[in-house]
Amino acid sequence: MGIRLPALALWCAALMTPGIAAGQETPSFDVWLEGVRAEAIELGIKPEIVTAALTGIEPIQRIIQRDRNQAEFKLTLDRYMTRVVTPANVAAGRRMAKKHETLLAAVSRKYGVQSRFILAIWGIETRFGAVEADVPLIPALATLAYDARRSTFFRRQLFDALQMVNRGYIGLESLLGSWAGAMGQPQFMPSSYLAFAQDFDGDGKRDIWKNEGDVFASIANYLARHDWRDDLTWGRQVKVPADLVASLGEPGRRAAPGCRATTSDRKPLSEWQTQGVRRADGGDLPGRDVPAALVLPDGAGGAAYLVYQNYAAIMAYNCAHLYAVTVGTLADRIQE
Questions:
Q1: Tens digits of per-residue pLDDT, 148-192?
Q2: Domain ranges of the chain
Q3: Engineered SS bond to 198: which of 28, 103, 217, 311, CB 3.0-4.6 Å?
């Protein structure tokens, strides 16, 4: 599994399902779990599924520890990208592009998403399907739903995972994922599975675990539903005058809806060019006058990027600049 902030598009959203608010006295896990069982039945989940899924589980302390030590909060962009955009990963991406050329082309045509970005996300999430997360999902989600930090979000994910079983999408014994509840080769959260997973081959299943067509289509559908444009790339590294960075102040524009990460305001490329911004090699910016925002993942002293509309779609997939810049960079390397 790639180094990632594991909640995809919805982890920052303000959700309406009640959780344990900060400052409230926390009930025991058993008392809390009894309330979850009752609410699950109210939501229409079969009692036998509720009993099977939510009996005999306990909070898992190592999951809480992992939640407090996620890579995007600890690494610089250079260290993060060095771990991911390796010669081996680039070579693997190119092999997969050839192996699945026909399938990727069909998915790209249907959803309007260039195949190199599908490959890059697939590669970062699960090393092109080689890494299979094997943590039982329900206990993991229950642990994070009980924890106060993001209880509202993970309570919803817990109910959505139960709905997946309730609707017959997957058996409870097969419901495995990462420590933070992300599933399958695209590492979808349960809410994202219900909203975006695709049955590309029409076999009646949305199999993001074993079926490459469904995996590629699900990734592409996610990006397409977040306003991806296949006539644009993601962005590019640039050189920015230091005085311009200083004059812009703190970035205040959300990188994607529901995402806490921010960028500068968008300006046409011609305006950035006039203000002295250039390509990384010192050349002029592209002549096509599309809106672009400035991103400084490591702050004013680090690398700078001008990013386009598609960058916001990647940030919706995972709200971390280190992740989005690395997806774009890996996609570019795969295509080269």
A1: 888 999 999 999 999 999 999 999 999 999 999 999 999 999 999
A2: 1-227+323-336, 235-307
A3: 217
Counting residues of the chain whose pLDDT is more than 70, the rounded percentage is 91
**Which residues lie closer than 8 Å to 286 by C-beta, 6 or more apart?**
269
Q: What is d(CA 303, CA 235) in angstroms, rounded to the nearest whole number?
A: 13
Burial 68-96 (b: 16+ CB within 10 A, else e): eebbbeebebeebbeebbeeebbebbbeb
Q: Please tell me the predicted confidence (pLDDT) of residue 70.
A: 63
Nearest by Cα to 141 from 19, 41, 318, 38:
19
Quick: pLDDT tens for 52-92: 999 999 999 999 988 887 654 568 999 999 999 999 999 99
Global pTM value: 0.89
Whether the Cβ atoms of residue 193 and residue 183 lie closer than 8 Å to each other: yes
pLDDT tens for residues 256-299? Answer: 998 999 999 999 999 999 999 999 999 999 999 999 999 999 99
Sign of CA dihedral 96, 101, 107, 113: positive
